[in-house]
Known about the structure:
Strand content: under 5%
Number of strands: 0
Protein name: TPR-like protein
Radius of gyration: 31 Å
Helix content: 55-70%
Distance between the termini: 55 Å
Largest sheet: none
Structural class: mainly alpha
Pfam families: PPR_2, PPR_3
Keywords: Repeat
CATH class of the domain at 132-266: Mainly Alpha
Shape: globular
Number of helices: 35
CATH topology of the domain at 132-266: Serine Threonine Protein Phosphatase 5, Tetratricopeptide repeat
PPR repeats: 33-67
Amino acid sequence: MFLMRKSNDPSDLEWLRTMVLEKGMLKYGLKPDHFDYNALLYCLGVHGHILEAEDLLPTMSKAGVPPNNHTYNILFGMYKRNGLIAKALQRLLEMDQPPVECYNQTLIMLVDKRMYDQAMDLFLRMPVQPDNYTYVVMLQLATKTKQAHFGKPLIGKLLNHPKFSNYELSSVLCFYTAVLMDLDTAMKLLKDNQHFADVYSITAMVGGLLQMNEPAKAVDLCQKAFGMFPQMKPNEDFYRLAIAASLNARRFDVALDNLNKLPAKFANPETIVSVLANLGAALCDSMPMDEMESLLDGYDKTKQSDHHIHRLLAWFEHPPIPIPQVAYNGFLLEISRRGRVDLAKWTFERIFGTGAIYTPNMATYSQLTVAYVIANRLEDAMAIYYVLRDRHPKQVVLDSVYFNMLIKALAQPVQVQRLSSSNTGRSMKHKERLSMSLQLFTDMRNLRLQPSPHTYTILLNACSFARDADGLLKIHQLMKMDLQLDPTTKLYNALMDGYNRTFQFEQVMFVWDKLFHDNKFDNASVSIVLDACGYHQQHGRGEAIWKILSAYSGFSLNTNNFNSYIEFICRSATGVTPLQRWLQAYKVTMLMQGHCHPDAKTLLTLDSFATKLDIDTLPEVKSCLASLERGVKT
């Protein structure tokens, strides 16, 4: 029974059923007891047979073995693993005296799903005495929601409990640092309990300081902690948080020190990938491009230098721990996103060049090419691409991921410091980039690489941004001819939005009618078509669409949809005065009840149109806006 209860094998579950429910144990002169029924219950949970597991409880009662606390713990653990919050809450209502462990399991589910109000309500209504674990769960809730008034009494409960341990201490320390922002008290508490203070306690405090955006204090704590408590041994989480804190505080010297101290046993690929990616992002965000280029030019590996850029370059060339290729690619990804070509080029040459550490793969080439694109060095980017294309497929194999990354980078709005600020320059540069995107797309099809819906969506968004009506029509035609393409709702939404931005209203309606007919529309589709009706003064069509959707079974309008409808009315309502039009839009906020709630955008939309319609000074309008503002704030 003990061995079989955790088995994934259906035959083992069937054996348990036979032994417990079909009198298989009687052959050995045995009668099923709590242990046997609970073993079967656990195995049913492993196999996901929730209903059968629930039916087992009345079977136990009939057999004279009523469910005990352990039985319910197993059942609620099953609910927790499967995210069945409603079942757990209903079961608590049905039980005469639920054990505290069942409440703990349910509270964890609610907190994990961010259902904080329901968790608070359940905690306050518990008919049983909470235990330490209950207080820890609720203190974690208070930390996540930053509710000092709720968390303080819980700290008292935990500190005064005779079974207070390092687990509870970690939660308390995190609350003190992240919510109360009282590092001094947290440190005193740590010293007072240093007999069982461990690395988890320090890690909790570091995490709390990072939550309250105090990376400098987190760095200071990391540097002092092991002097105060020499018996502590840092673990992988500590190094990860310590490096993250030093990067956030722009203490690159400390980050590199911690990186050098990182034991090989903690240097798993996931940790190194994360560290190098964060390091690349922090370096680029903290240093102007010209300064970084100057430091790269001045690097000499034969000379000692204390500058963190030079230390990083030296570390790259002679890493003290094994660095997987995916980690270097992650570093390249972050610096390429920021257009740092020189650092990307240096990394590529030293790590992936001839006779270097690794042979570049398509991910490596992708990051390098994208770096040149984002830096607007388009000729260099295309030169790399042409070399790769000429080597395809013997030396390298171009794939859809490479084309998607390059097309997406080219399709992005131009936002680089060195680019001319003139609108004409930006427009010409964007048209050039769009032309290159379409050329890459053509090459992709010629290489018989199937474009994904995401590829088409990227191109449509680029045409939409450039207001390129011909480009939109061309891509739409290619979509129609692509027999292997299975268009997604997101793709159709991008097409609708593009047609709306290029003033092709009938095409918007053509796409909307197809989405509606195929029942593939979503909330974004609704907002786009309402925006189009408003901008093109198609009041009748917009009202007809809204009327149908309001009564449409199985579809829920959200706040963005109501906001789009409000804007549609303000733009397109005819035959009424400006005040009547605005009041008609304002009444939509009343219709939102039962669906969703007005938000800041609702208020901003009505406020801005009151100004545009020159009615913002009217007492009636002021009163409505004030009432709406109070509702949004609450």
